[in-house]
């Protein structure tokens, strides 16, 4: 879909404003749909006009570092890109063990005692046997970045984008704080969990789902949306990734059902072989018709899937396939596509 743009070309594009209401953008999707790529492109798009965005990774895969062709992300916020108008993208790979140490220091002032627990293996033990605790720490760290203020009480980050777990477990991942708040009736754990849930269920949060125009990803997207809504979590947009460019003349796809003999005569008339049976024109027809029928079926399937996505009552955006693979210039191109489509 169009030619690849360099970061400099992208910076010259007309500015399209993205919504300023949501400040925490959670990006999920079935495995293989490219959710990390979309999260990175969204962070670049949101960082326009001199704004600052934090891109957060919670699964420990270092996918963000690979996309931006930088070294592995530490447990600290690091600038990794500059967007339109001088906006900045920072990145953070949240580590559950380090987040728990921060948590112990923040609420219980353990300090060196917390570090001693880590040396004894207690921190790793706690985050391993209690996966719910791990999710609380990961979501809590991202929400802390959203709420953080500078000395003038301005948000440190204009937006936070979370590359979240896949659709199959996103509702449990985001809703675990509700369970923790119910278990811990009082105290800092209860207050922390409730504060996180207030943010996650508020208009400041939007959960975006990445999908492909394939039957299984679309079905998982529809199911995931239903689960998110049932849990009271705010849904944002559906992003259809890796969309293949439309071919010219697709309005004439009914030609795929034409009779081979008729097409052979048409080929012969155009000078592509003789019209006799078994001639070159006739040999060309069979494989071409097979490809046309396959493409026709694909187009009809995609039309049906687009209709199914449109019926979900959620904005739908499409991103083109990067034929040359995902690299820095490709991320800027996808960011530009998001800016053009987002209202």
Automatic annotation (TrEMBL):
Gene3D superfamilies with a match to the protein in the record: P-loop containing nucleotide triphosphate hydrolases
GO molecular function, one term: ATP hydrolysis activity
The ArsA/GET3 Anion-transporting ATPase-like domain, residue ranges: 25-189
Name of the molecule in the record: ATPase
SUPFAM superfamilies assigned to the protein according to its UniProt record, in alphabetical order: P-loop containing nucleoside triphosphate hydrolases
Domain of life (superkingdom): Bacteria
Pfam families: ArsA_ATPase
Organism for this UniProt entry: Streptomyces boncukensis
